């Protein structure tokens, strides 16, 4: 893939994903008039909890779909992934029943806690299909599926509000249905090219042993990392009101969730390019791809960060009204989270691509410890007010990602030495 083709591919995918994320953002003024901060808190809690669980749903073995060179073994990789997903679904179902009260209290899932296993299962399938399309170099379909998901999310949330009136569960119902329809869209597009999966347990065992570092090291470290990211929702749920969780939820939907999907899309393309170059022994190409991608992220990230930092409250009040002014203040605070994640998150996958999985894991463990320490000190010991805790959280994220970028730089430019 030439440099110009690489840039063009990233630009095209970013446009699709931005459109997908703009749909709920553009419709948010309507959604916030039929759903209050409690409804926003419900969907925020659902997404936060499921984000943690999704990490382990396939054992991160979907990476093997890109890494495996032997085409004849791909059906076994797919079989292992789907088997993992079904087993994990059963485990999550049991955990929801056992720890229902804790989950409802911590994540404010008063009405949607039993949807969690289904959200996790279909998102696992979504990830498996996503990595299949990365292997096939068909990046556009995943981006289009996010548009389908967003349209279904908004449409069904509005339909539920129309049928049931003001409620707290419609946004969450729309969210999970959007994921299911998006997954079905990808499956229909992949159906003709997917190999027929036969569950040969001996072959799947060999695949598991070959890629055991993913479930043994990548899953725990990634789960710790996601827990670290979602800890703010847990601490807000425990120490602050459901309304304050809702205000954070809107700000998070406007700032952090869109950037996470853009970052993931860029990361997927970046990962495929890096793996291809690294397999071929083209170390200089790995380094140039890294620098070029960082440049793209800077061009996109800096202007958006400055806009959010200095005009976030004005924008939120203008679009959503004075009732959501608190969310505007939150947007300005967590703009630091935006710039940290948009610049560094897409690049972190390079450590997996160059076989530095354990190093990546060590950073994720360190980040988790830092965030637990800061949030516990801030919320429990110092009893900081709502905005001060969010500022402390944002500073913690910024510091951890600066350190991550240093690790990535040293690893990439240490190649070949």
Automatic annotation (TrEMBL):
**Membrane topology type:** Multi-pass membrane protein
* Keywords tagged on the record: Cell membrane, Membrane, Transmembrane, Transmembrane helix
User: Is Ligase included in the keywords of this UniProt record?
Assistant: no
Name this protein carries in UniProt: Membrane protein involved in the export of O-antigen and teichoic acid
Q: Does the keyword section mention Aminoacyl-tRNA synthetase?
A: no
Q: Name one Pfam family in it.
A: Polysacc_synt_3
Q: Which PANTHER family match?
A: POLYSACCHARIDE BIOSYNTHESIS PROTEIN, PST FAMILY PREDICTED COLANIC ACID TRANSPORTER
Q: Where in the cell is it found?
A: Cell membrane
Q: Which InterPro entries match?
A: Poly_Biosynth_Transport
This entry carries the following GO cellular component terms, namely: plasma membrane
- Tell me where the transmembrane regions lie: 9-31, 43-66, 78-99, 111-134, 170-188, 222-241, 247-271, 291-311, 331-353, 365-384, 390-413
